């Protein structure tokens, strides 16, 4: 069911269902809560699943200035509203950056941390310039034309060819996100700090889900990070791009379930 809370004077919204230990699934750039629909349907049988629409997406009001830290506070506010003292927090792409910001400030609230096609490293100068170019394109052409050019590259080549309707549905859902939000997310991603220290210091298990054909967060970006946590669950998936939770959702469901169960056993 949809629920709301006070996010610093602004309305924050999230989807909540199921019972038991809490699992939080945070969407990435160009996504909303619905991107986790397969995982929500699977995990709700076992856990209390919370899936936010980050500020500026869905009915969650955008907040200024927007940053990974402010969105980490959004997650904290949602947990507080639910009366949840600990959770396994999983973030896809930009959602992983939010999860890391949350983990840095609230490590005692974590039972596990999941980086789903995400990285603790900051943007390189080359990546920042690419985002600046994207902002210029958003201002010039609007969201739909920009997203139709960008988002197909989030999928592995074979999936794009064989599952064109699903790719188009993903793009269509993304076009509901305002240009203002898409630009604010880019700016927040460019400004985020290096959080590899979080991985080195974290006391709970960390999940790394890596698609071999991921162009947004390539394999070689993440490999140096998988040995940083004391305990890590590492999954490198063939013929998967940046959106494994959609491309191989059944395998993703099982990986997440096994990770959450593992986190419970290590507490």
From TrEMBL:
Keyword Metal-binding appears in the UniProt entry: no
Top-level taxonomic group: Bacteria
Domain AB hydrolase-1: 22-219
Gene Ontology molecular-function annotations: hydrolase activity
Hydrolase recorded as keyword: yes
Lineage: Bacteria, Pseudomonadati, Bacteroidota, Chitinophagia, Chitinophagales
The protein's name: Alpha/beta hydrolase
InterPro entries named in the record: AB_hydrolase_1, AB_hydrolase_fold, AB_hydrolase_sf
PANTHER family noted in UniProt: MONOACYLGLYCEROL LIPASE
Keywords per UniProt: Hydrolase
């Amino acid at each position: 069911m949809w629920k709301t809370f006070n996010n610093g004077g602004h309305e924050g919204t999230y989807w909540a269902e199921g019972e038991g230990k809490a699992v939080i699934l945070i969407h990435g750039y160009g996504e909303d809560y619905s991107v986790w629909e397969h995982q929500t349907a699977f995990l709700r049988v076992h856990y209390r699943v919370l899936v936010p629409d980050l500020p500026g997406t869905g009915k969650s009001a955008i907040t200024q200035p927007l940053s990974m830290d402010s969105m980490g506070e959004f997650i904290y506010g949602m947990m507080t509203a639910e009366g949840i003292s600990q959770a396994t927090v999983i973030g896809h792409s930009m959602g992983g950056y939010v999860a890391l910001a949350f983990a840095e400030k609230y490590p005692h609230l974590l039972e596990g941390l999941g980086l789903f096609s995400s990285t603790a490293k900051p943007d390189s100068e080359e990546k920042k310039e690419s985002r600046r170019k994207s902002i210029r394109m958003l201002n010039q052409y609007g969201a739909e034309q920009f997203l139709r050019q960008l988002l197909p590259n989030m999928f592995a080549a074979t999936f794009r060819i064989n599952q064109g309707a699903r790719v188009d549905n993903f793009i269509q859902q993304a076009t509901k996100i305002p240009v203002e939000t898409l630009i604010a997310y880019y700016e927040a991603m460019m400004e985020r700090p290096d959080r590899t220290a979080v991985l080195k210091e974290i006391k709970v298990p960390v999940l790394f889900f890596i698609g071999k054909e991921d162009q947004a967060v390539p394999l070689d970006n993440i490999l140096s990070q998988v040995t940083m946590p004391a305990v890590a669950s590492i999954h490198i998936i063939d013929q998967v791009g940046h959106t494994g939770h959609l491309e191989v959702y059944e395998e993703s469901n099982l990986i997440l379930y096994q990770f959450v169960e593992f986190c419970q056993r290590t507490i």
